Each structure stands twice: as structure tokens, then as C-alpha cells.
Amino acid sequence: MSLSRISRAYPAIFRQFQQYSITKVALISTSKKSKDTLAFPDDVFPKKLPPAPKTVEEFAETKNPKFWVSYGYDEENYENDRHEHKVLNFFLLTVLVCGGTFILAYNPDIQQKDWIYREAYLRMNSRQKQGLPVIDKNYIDPEKIELPSDEELGDTEIII
Asked: What is the domain partition of the chain in residue ranges?
């Protein structure tokens, strides 16, 4: 997609993102106790975070789901979050980048330029071996062409 197409599509893309943005939700608390604080649901920002690791053994435990930070695919399940992250990265990096590069590199000749050059070389080479000129005014021998007689043509207009 060219840059000009993206710039033309930008307003439509921006409108799509505006429909689903969080700015349409009023997250300001209306209680008198804390007028100027923002109110977020507990599932977005939990009030009590798990205690941070303190001992060397706790720091060494990297697989412990108690201290994991989600990649954003699954907020509750450690294994699903890691699995989806790895699958998505594998797909994006390996399949799209490597596969796309492979397809572009080994893409067949769509406009058949290679075939045209090969065919022209073979025809010119064969004509030179036969002792004929490389390019002839009469590609087909005029004696082999059967034209209609004037009587068969009648009043048909001939445009050359």
C-alpha cells in the first residue's frame, strides 16, 4: 500500500479508533470525598498488588505466575499469556517476514519478460543459422497468404 493511500485512509482509520477509545468513558469520581481522583474499575487497576520478591530464591523463580507481568493476551492465565505471545511472535516474524521475503525473491515472472527475451534470442539465433535476416519485412511468406479476390470483397472498404 503506498503512502498516499495510507494518508487518504487516515481519517477513516482515525474515526474507527475514536469509536472504541476509552476517552468516551467518564472515569472521574463524583463523590465528595475525593473530587480530584480518577476512579478506575478494580479489574483494570487492582487495589492490592502481590508482594514483590524479597529473597534470592523468589527472584530466581522466573516461572512463578505470582510475579509475572502479562503481555496483554490473557490477564489471568500465565501459560495462555506466554503461549499466545510466542505464537504471535513466531507467526509475525517467521511466517510473514521470512515467508514474504521468500515469496518476493522467488516470485515467478508475472509479466513474462524472461520468456520474451529467451524466445527472441532463440528466434534470432535460428534465423541467423538459416542465413535469413534477423528481422524481415515479411514475417510470413507472402506466397503462403491467400487473399480474397476483388469479386469476393465487393464493396467492402479496406483500411490499411
From this structure: 42-149
Dump pLDDT digits (tens) for 44-72. 665 666 677 788 887 777 666 666 788 88
CA distance 127 to 131: 6
**Sequential DSSP letters for the chain:** --HHHHHHHHHHHHHHHHHT-GGGS--B---SS-TTSB---TTTS-SSPPPPP-SHHHHH--S-GGG----SS-SS-HHHHHHHHHHHHIIIIIIIIIHHHHHHHT---TT-HHHHHHHHHHHHHHHHHHT--SS-S-SS-GGG--PPPHHHHTT-----
> Of the ranges 3-7, 24-28, 86-90, which is most confident?
86-90
Residue 139 has, within 13 A of its CA and on its CB side, a CA count of: 2
Is the torsion defined by CA of 108, 114, 119, 125 positive or negative? negative
Which comes out higher in pLDDT, residue 133 or 21? 133
**CA–CA distance, 93 with 99 (Å, rounded to integer):** 9
Residues listed for the chain: 160
